[in-house]
Specification:
Elements lengths: L2 E6 L6 E5 L3 E5 L5 H8 L8 E5 L5 H4 L2 H8 L2 E4 L1 H6 L6 E2 L4 E3 L2 E7 L8 E7 L2 E6 L7 H7 L4 E5 L4 H6 L4 H8 L7 H11 L5 E5 L8 H14 L6 E4 L9 E2 L1
Length: about 250
């Protein structure tokens, strides 16, 4: 059985876990060991082989990696420059696909204001999961990689009007809107529309607390897909405190 659970999603910390009978894959560690333990204590993952994959060096994705990797005795993988930036000198630099047990994890380079940011496509015995966050634009390579995902966890960071009229400074607004910033609800809808399939469960992630709402993000993406008659299994919004639904395959 394959399991997926997004522990936390947002600007205060991100972490996702995917596991089968033998291995646990952790995507990002932007939360504390205390929160990680609280959220996973009942999931029966203690005896599994554990691996951590970091997408980029920003603290909401990497702040807990040293403590969590040490406590779990987990190997850490990322781009070499990202490992250097977060001072994980015993980590493993990756360029292509990494295999462990029944898992393969494929990094895909994206456009974000970090040294060498990636997103991850995870496969396990015919199940495909895309964890796509912190990017200002979606290119054709990423669309192709995401196609036919059973779970598509993708950023829907902001509503353009809320960002425009919100409390952020103009330089910060420009950074978020840029090709090296974050995806809007509309951009998320476009990317999902180009890659979704009938078997996809959609999870909208990394929502801004000040420039978005879960209802608005879901309604924007649903409308975009429904207007184009795209079919999918389900859609939800992951949150900072509650994370996502626990999915089992």
């Amino acid at each position: 059985m394959l399991n997926f659970y997004m522990i936390s999603s947002g600007s205060k910390g991100n972490s996702t876990i995917i596991w089968d009978e033998y291995d646990l894959v952790i995507i990002d560690c932007g939360i504390s060991m205390k929160k990680f333990s609280e959220k996973t204590s009942a999931l029966g993952i203690d005896g599994l082989e554990k691996s951590i994959f970091i997408s980029h060096e920003h603290s909401d994705h990497s702040s807990g990696v040293k403590m969590i990797s040490r406590k779990l005795n987990a190997d850490v993988y990322s781009r070499q420059r990202t490992l250097e930036r977060i001072k994980m000198y015993n980590g493993y630099g990756i360029n292509g696909q990494v295999a462990m047990g029944n898992f393969t994890v494929t990094p895909v380079s994206v456009s974000h204001d970090a040294v060498d940011p990636v997103v991850y496509i995870i496969r396990n015995r015919g199940i495909k999961i895309s964890v796509v966050s912190d990017l200002g634009m979606v290119n054709d390579e990423l669309i192709n990689e995401m196609k036919d995902s059973d779970i598509m966890a993708i950023e829907a960071n902001h509503d353009t009007e809320m960002l425009k009229n919100g409390p952020y400074t103009e330089p910060l607004k420009r950074r978020i809107r840029s090709d090296y910033g974050h995806l809007s609800n509309e951009q998320s809808g476009e990317a999902i529309n180009a890659s979704v399939s009938d078997n996809t469960r959609i999870i909208l992630t990394h929502l801004s607390e000040k420039n978005n709402t879960p209802d608005l993000a879901i309604e924007t993406v649903k409308s975009y897909l429904n207007n184009r008659k795209k079919k999918y299994i389900s859609i939800e919004s992951a949150s900072q405190d509650l994370g996502s639904t626990l999915y089992k395959f």
